[in-house]
Amino acid sequence: MRLKSFPGGLHPPDNKQFTAHKAIVDCPLPAELVIPLSQHIGAPADACVKVGDLVAKGEVVGQARGFVSVPVHASTSGAVVAVEPRPHPAGKPLPAVVIKPDGEDRWIDGLAGIPAEEQDDESLRDRIRAAGIVGLGGATFPTHVKLTPPGDKPIDTLILNGVECEPYLTADHRLMLENPERIVDGITILQRLLGVRRTLLGIEANKPDAIAVMTKACAGTSIEVVALAVKYPQGAEKQLILALIGKEVPSGGLPMDVGVVVQNVGTAAAVADAVRHGRPLVERIATVSGPAIANPQNLRVRIGTPLSHLVAVCGGAKGELAKIIMGGPMMGSAQLGLEAPVTRGTSGLLLFGPGQFPRAPEGPCIRCGRCVRACPAHILPTAIAACARLDRFDEAEGFDAMDCIECGCCTYTCPAAIPLVQAIRQAKAAILAKRRKG
Questions:
Q1: What separation in angstroms does the CA of 63 have from each of 32, 74, 144, 402?
Q2: Per-residue pLDDT tens over the stretch 134-152
């Protein structure tokens, strides 16, 4: 049987063998937790604690600001020692609440779940928002917003993303193997809130063990597990929709425009934790890997843990570091050092030594068309990049620059080593800035 997929894309080495077989391990608490107030798409949270305050695990330390925002919580119990800008994965210092753990790891009093059957839909959405649940696949879009589609956008299909197509990363893979019941429990809550008629769980065929485990866990439910072709970026939202149900999200549109909501399997598990146990999102699974880490692992890590602590827990770096990436090698963000903390969107941390993340010197475009053939968004990366370099952003917009999903396929496949996706990001940023000015 031919596996479902999408046009375009690539087959980079997956390099998942370093951690795919390793069970999730609890990461010890660090000496200090740095909890950014900006960890999600939308308005950052506002700090609601001050230096000297004692907080419990799960206590709100940053209040949501607006509908497209979520609160931020203490990842353990302890004392607030600073509320100030600190290094952030975005590359610049941003406001954060700094907590010195007291070693008790004590949950806030009164934390308890309420059976979903005893709550109305509005109460469930409020609980999910109060728990700070966001998309854990990397986008960090507030989950309650996705669960509140406009009345003129009926949702008939819920898609669960268990693809994890980025090389090296195996956090979702291990979660499916070790906690399938939590995922299914969360899916049933999402199904109810969206009122969908079908639910599909997509998993790449290179995870046959996860396909088997999730198929067994979904037995007796309306959830259909679908094996997908192994190709990058199979887990991108629009490409996943096209592969699974054959619908193409229109240019400039959203999945809800074709009646679909997509959620990551980790997000589903977090929804279950919030509803069944009242637990806010204070930890996540992250893969620490790459050729320059001594002992690659899948860690259950508290939000706010410094990246340097993850490296120490995994045995340290093997020699000099030349490249540090938060996330995957294709769409992740390069880090200047290990000072930034883990956020809700941290799916992984990858370390590379000299020569282990090679990049040839940039040359002239040879018009080979490889970037066009690889582009899963069906745009012209080389044309958009050329416009961006000349500051001709109106022309870049005319070439559908805003449809770029920033997967990096164009840069990866370019024989001239032109940083195409970086130029397209520049164009998108300029276009958005112009739109905001009106």
A1: 21, 12, 15, 31
A2: 999 988 999 999 999 999 9
Give the closest residue to 202 by CA, choosing from 178, 238, 168. Answer: 238
Peptide bond before 233: cis, by omega within 30 degrees of 0? yes
Question: Residue 22 burial (CB < 10 Å; 0-12/13-18/19+)?
Answer: middle
Give just the sign of the alpha carbon dihedral 281, 282, 285, 290: positive
Amino acid code (one letter) for 273 = D
Asked whether 163 and 148 are in contact (CB, 8 A), the reply is no
H/E element holding 394? helix 393-398
Point out which residues pair with 1 in neighbouring strands.
Answer: none
pTM, whole model, 2 decimals?
A: 0.96
Domain at 117-277: CATH code: 3.40.50.11540
Question: CA–CA separation, 326 vs 350, rounded Å?
Answer: 6
CA distance 28 to 374: 41
Give the count of alpha carbons within 13 A of 393, CB side only: 15
The tens digit of pLDDT for each residue in 100-119 reads 999 999 999 988 777 778 88
Give domain limits for the chain.
Answer: 117-277, 370-436
State whether residue 266 is helix, strand or coil: helix
